[in-house]
TrEMBL record, chain A:
Belongs to the ETF alpha-subunit/FixB family. The keyword Transmembrane does not apply. This is Electron transfer flavoprotein subunit alpha/FixB family protein. It comes from Dyadobacter sandarakinus. The keyword Lyase does not apply. The lineage of its organism: Bacteria, Pseudomonadati, Bacteroidota, Cytophagia, Cytophagales. Residues 3-190 form the Electron transfer flavoprotein alpha/beta-subunit N-terminal domain. SMART domains: ETF. InterPro entries: DHS-like_NAD/FAD-binding_dom, ETF_a/b_N, ETF_a/FixB, ETF_asu_C, Rossmann-like_a/b/a_fold. It comes from the Bacteria. It holds the Pfam family ETF. Keywords: Electron transport, Transport.
UniProtKB/TrEMBL annotation, chain B:
Residues 23-209 form the Electron transfer flavoprotein alpha/beta-subunit N-terminal domain. PANTHER family: ELECTRON TRANSFER FLAVOPROTEIN BETA-SUBUNIT, ELECTRON TRANSFER FLAVOPROTEIN SUBUNIT BETA. This is Electron transfer flavoprotein subunit beta. Signal peptide: none annotated. Gene3D superfamilies: HUPs (3.40.50.620). Belongs to the ETF beta-subunit/FixA family. It comes from the Bacteria. SUPFAM superfamilies: Adenine nucleotide alpha hydrolases-like. CDD domains: ETF_beta. Keywords: Electron transport, Transport. InterPro entries: ETF_a/b_N, ETF_b, ETF_beta_N, Rossmann-like_a/b/a_fold.
Length: 324, 245
């Protein structure tokens, strides 16, 4: 009866958010007096998977089927359900993403599990009560939910807990796992795949530098990219900026774009419309730089600078470079 | 082609969220309800597809009568008929059970909805419905074309997008730019009044989770202002005080 964690890979390595999910699962396992098993799908290097142990997984089940290198919620859910049955897992942890939600839903329907997506913090477990808190209304509120079914699938937000980067457990034992995968999952024909390379993914990034209309045009974006590169940050933008095609659509952060929860979010020349806030209000620390002292974003910020971003950004970049 | 579009009725994106009944219910007083923005795009694409190939668009909502104005608006936007399952669903699972029950009684080539509702933000109803109906599902879908019984789908994947071909029937979670955003025409509004809106009772479900109290986020502490001429201080504070770099 172990806690099962679905871990995501990026080019054969375990994603950082998945290490966070393992630590989260290990804390629940400690509370329940059981062990932690991770499930990894697709081609991966064993030595990479062993690292799951440093974060608290005793064992990694590895399905080394190359068909699973491709995002496939149906096949992934089949593998997850069979792993949960083999391990008699009552608690299943999945890091939040579009794919994670789809896998959770399908596995949840098969297992008649309670599924809650968007969980912040650890569950409160007392007697038979298993209570979680989830983000609702794009972070404008939270709901407390009792997961009543015997099986529970927790889809957790990035930064649901503070994770320890220097985790030092022993390497996990990696076991080959061969679930029965139905042909139905592989019927769709992939015509083309287009991936953004050499960019830090917004949903994985610990630091995001984001720009709004205050940058006045795409030709000024180098100021923001320089700061991002000095900080090792990903870059994002507000909706008007992607609507104007100053930046690509996949950088749009907000209610109808990507929702991010980095450790640090630096907003440059973004006034802070409620729809933008909905995409960033889960960030641990928010910095707002704007020439308008009345910009509503300052109300949601931890640090603020009122001034000319064209002067301030290069100075911050210089200061950040000196840190490295 | 027979298309089912599931819509949510949610507070407008700019609404201030508060709760009543000892923090167990959304306070709808003064809140403008709208069709979920992602559902709106799904509906628009359904209407476009129906206009290209003959067919019918049915709108489905699981919820109480206060969503009837949004359902009428969906009819005004070009849906042909509507069904409302008259129950406040307990959770995503309950919602999915009701949708799957309606879907089983009819044969839909496509079941479309938004990638997520903007109230609960779970994004799991399409996956649940697909699993209950034993159908493939994809989300978030940014482009959708139908040729006979084949759908060509562009969907977002981790760090990019992909194009795939799949056979109908399918369940899809949609997002912009799948369709042009539409507002209802005068003629649409007039004809919507007489289009059928059927209210049906729910089927029984098991309750897998129980929602308790709602809370609002703790108020943010005061924003620490740094003078523009000492901008460098920010980097130091982020390192030593906030410990985020």
């Amino acid at each position: 009866m172990s806690v099962l964690i679905y871990i995501e890979l990026d080019k054969g390595s375990v994603k950082k958010t998945s290490f966070g999910a393992i630590q989260y699962g290990a804390m629940i396992a400690a509370k329940l007096g059981t062990t932690t098993t991770a499930l990894s799908l697709g081609t991966a290097n064993s030595s990479e998977l062993e690292q799951a142990g440093h974060h608290g997984a005793a064992k990694v089940l590895h399905v080394a089927d190359p068909r699973l290198d491709h995002e496939n919620s149906l096949a992934y859910a089949e593998a997850l359900v069979q792993a949960a049955e083999q391990e008699e897992s009552e608690v299943i942890i999945i890091p939040k993403s579009g794919l994670g939600d789809a896998v959770a839903a399908r596995a949840g329907a098969r297992l008649k599990a309670a599924v809650v997506s968007g969980i912040t913090g650890l569950p409160e477990i007392t007697g038979d009560t298993f209570r979680v808190t989830k983000r609702i209304f794009s972070g404008k509120a939270f709901a407390s939910i009792d997961m009543a079914a015997a099986r529970k699938i927790l889809v957790i937000q990035k930064n649901a807990i503070e994770t320890d980067e220097n985790a030092t457990g022993s390497p996990a034992q990696v076991e080959a796992f061969s679930p029965v995968l139905s042909e139905a999952g592989f019927k769709a024909k992939v015509i083309s795949t287009e991936k953004v390379t050499n960019e830090i993914s917004l949903t994985e990034a610990e630091i995001i530098v984001s720009g709004g209309r205050g940058l006045k045009g795409p030709e000024n974006w180098h100021l923001l990219l320089d700061l991002a590169s000095a900080l090792g940050a990903a870059t994002g933008c507000s909706k008007p900026v992607s609507d104007l095609d100053w930046r690509p659509h996949h950088e749009h952060i907000g209610q109808t774009g990507i929702k991010v929860t980095p450790g640090l979010y630096i907003a440059c020349g973004i006034s802070g419309a409620i729809q933008h806030l909905a995409g960033v209000n889960g960030s641990r620390c928010i910095v707002v730089i704007n020439k308008d002292p009345e910009a509503p974003f300052f109300k949601s910020a931890d640090y603020g600078i009122v001034g000319d971003i064209f002067e301030i950004l290069p100075r911050l970049t210089d200061a950040a470079r000196k840190l490295r | 082609m027979n298309i089912l579009v599931c819509i949510t009725s949610v507070p407008d994106t700019t609404a201030k969220i508060t709760f009543t009944d000892n923090d167990t219910k959304l306070n709808k007083a003064g809140v403008q309800l709208i069709i979920g923005p992602y559902d709106d795009y799904a509906l628009s694409r359904a209407v476009e597809l129906k206009e290209q190939a003959a067919g019918k668009v049915t709108v489905l909502h699981v919820g109480g009568a206060d969503a009837d104005p949004q359902i009428r608006k969906a009819l005004a936007l070009g849906a042909d008929e509507a069904i409302r399952v008259d129950v406040e669903p307990a959770d995503s699972y309950d919602t999915a059970v009701q949708i799957a029950h309606i879907a089983r009684q009819n044969s839909y080539d496509l079941i479309l909805m938004g990638r997520e509702s903007i109230d609960y933000n779970s994004g799991i109803v399409h996956g649940l419905v697909a699993e209950m109906l034993d159908l493939p599902s994809y989300s978030p879908v940014m482009k959708l074309d139908i040729n006979g019984s084949t759908a060509t789908i562009t969907r977002e994947i981790d760090g990019g997008k992909e194009v795939l071909e799949a056979s109908l029937p399918l369940v899809l979670g949609c997002q912009e730019p799948i369709a042009e955003w539409k507002s209802p025409s005068m003629k649409g509004i007039m004809t919507a009044r007489t289009k059928p809106l059927q209210v049906v009772p729910p089927v029984e479900t098991e309750q897998l989770s129980v929602t308790g109290k709602y809370t609002l986020p703790a108020p943010k502490g005061a924003c620490k202002m740094i003078p523009a001429d000492a901008a460098e201080t920010l980097i130091r504070l982020l390192q030593t005080e906030a410990k985020v770099i």
